C-alpha cells in the first residue's frame, strides 16, 4: 500500500498540470468559504462597482504591454487594494475575482483552462490579502502584489515553460518575466498610496 501511494505521488509530481489543478481548486475553495461570510449591502455593492470601474479605466492607461501578457499601468491595482484595506480581505477576494473575470473577457490570453485560473481570477483575488494589513498600507500593498506574483509565477512555470530560452530554466524565466512588469506596478502603487488622502477617503466612504 505504501509503495502504491509513493507511485501515485511520483506520478502526480511528474504532472505539474495536475498539481496546479489541485492547488488552484484549493485556493478557490478557501477564498469562497471566506467570501460566503460577506453581507452584500447596497453601499458595499456600490463601492465594489466603483472600484472595478476605476481599475478597468486605469488599466487602459498602459505604459507598457508584455508580449505574452502582463502590463505596466497607471496604478490599476490601487482600487482593488483600497477595497481590501477598507472592507477586509473577504471583500478584496470578491472584488478581485469579479475583476479577473472582466479582465479575461476584455483581454483573453488562453493556453489551458488551469492557466486561465492562475492568470485571471486567482492573481487578482490575491490582492485581497492586503486586507490583513489594514493599518499597514505599504506592507499590505507589497503582500497583495506578492500574492499576485506567485499566481503568475506558477502559471509561467507550468504553462509558459516553452517560451523560456534554451539556456534558461523555466523557474528563472517565469520569475524574471513576471517581476519585469509587477515590480514597476508595485512601485507605482506604493507611490499612489503615498499620495492618496487615505483617511479622508475612509471617512467619506463611511458616510
Automatic annotation (TrEMBL):
Coiled coil: none annotated. The chain crosses the membrane at residues 15-33, 45-64, 117-133, 145-165, 171-193. Signal peptide: none annotated. Keywords: Membrane, Transmembrane, Transmembrane helix. GO terms for molecular function: thiamine transmembrane transporter activity. InterPro entries: Thia_Transptr_ThiT (IPR012651). One of its GO terms (cellular component) is plasma membrane. This is Proton-coupled thiamine transporter YuaJ.
Amino acid at each position: 500500500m505504501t509503495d502504491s501511494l509513493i507511485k501515485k505521488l511520483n506520478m502526480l509530481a511528474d504532472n505539474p498540470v495536475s498539481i496546479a489543478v489541485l492547488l488552484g481548486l484549493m485556493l478557490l475553495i478557501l477564498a469562497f468559504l471566506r467570501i460566503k461570510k460577506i453581507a452584500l449591502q447596497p453601499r458595499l455593492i456600490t463601492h465594489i462597482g466603483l472600484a472595478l470601474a476605476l481599475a478597468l479605466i486605469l488599466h487602459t492607461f498602459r505604459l507598457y504591454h508584455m508580449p505574452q501578457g502582463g502590463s505596466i499601468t497607471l496604478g490599476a491595482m490601487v482600487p482593488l487594494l483600497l477595497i481590501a484595506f477598507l472592507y477586509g480581505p473577504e471583500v478584496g477576494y470578491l472584488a478581485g475575482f469579479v475583476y479577473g473575470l472582466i479582465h479575461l473577457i476584455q483581454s483573453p490570453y488562453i493556453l489551458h483552462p488551469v492557466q486561465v485560473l492562475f492568470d485571471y481570477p486567482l492573481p487578482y483575488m490575491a490582492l485581497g490579502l492586503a486586507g490583513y494589513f489594514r493599518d499597514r498600507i505599504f506592507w499590505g500593498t507589497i503582500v497583495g502584489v506578492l500574492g499576485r506574483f506567485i499566481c503568475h509565477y506558477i502559471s509561467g512555470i507550468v504553462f509558459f515553460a516553452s517560451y523560456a530560452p534554451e539556456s534558461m530554466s523555466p523557474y528563472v524565466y517565469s520569475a524574471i518575466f513576471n517581476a519585469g512588469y509587477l515590480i514597476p506596478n508595485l512601485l507605482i502603487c506604493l507611490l499612489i498610496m503615498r499620495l492618496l488622502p487615505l483617511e479622508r477617503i475612509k471617512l467619506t466612504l463611511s458616510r
